[in-house]
Every structure is written in C-alpha cells, then in structure tokens.
Amino acid sequence: MKVLTHIPEAWAEISDLFVALGDAHRQRILLSFEKNERLTILQIVDSSQLSRTAVTHHLKVLERGGALRSEKIGREVYFWVNKDWMQQALQNVISYLKEDI
Fold it and tell me: Which InterPro entries match (predicted)?
C-alpha cells in the first residue's frame, strides 16, 4: 500500500466536481441547459421547482466544482456548462482506473 502525503494535481479539484454532481437538484439544473446555452438565474429558477435562494446555492456548488462557469454582463449573471473541464476531470479518473497498479 502506498502512503500518499498529497493528492495528485490531476485529482485536486475532482472531489468538488463529484460533490457538485452528487445531488439530484444540481443534476437537474445541469441537464436543463441546451448545448452551448447560457442561462440567467431567473431562467434557471423558472425551469425549476426550487426557490431562488436554493437555486443560487446549487449554482455556487456547481461553479465551485467546475461544472458551471459564469459571466456578469450588465446586471445579469449568465451561466453555462463547463463540459471541457468536466470531461478532463473525468478522463483523469478513467486514466487512473486503466493504470496498472
């Protein structure tokens, strides 16, 4: 058995992604986005059964986990799915699983 003193760099932020993806409400929020779509908080709230406060919380968790990105334009904040980052993070896990240990 190896004793790890630190988590490998490729895995450093993966745990936050798994936390973000580990909730059904957050999964529904992610799945509500069309390909290359950018949505505001109000648009996400309108398509959800959650309160604005709850949606805001879930958006923060998704953004912290790297699943979403955002940009403020004027008074609105637009969110979009960060597929490239999620693919890379999950590929790091798959690569680990394929390694001969």
Answer: ArsR-like_HTH, HTH_ArsR_DNA-bd_dom, HTH_MetalResp_TranReg, WH-like_DNA-bd_sf, WH_DNA-bd_sf
pTM, to two decimals:
0.86
Instruction: Show the domain range for 48.
Output: 13-98
Are the CB atoms for 31 and 47 separated by under 8 Å?
no
DSSP the chain: ----SS--GGGTTHHHHHHHHTSHHHHHHHHTPPTT--EEHHHHHHTSSS-HHHHHHHHHHHHHTTSEEEEEETTEEEEEE-HHHHHHHHHHHHHHHHS--
User: Is 76 part of a structural domain of the chain?
Assistant: yes
CATH of the domain at 28: 1.10.10.10
Is residue 70 within 8 A of residue 56, CB to CB? The reply is: no
End-to-end CA distance of the chain: 10
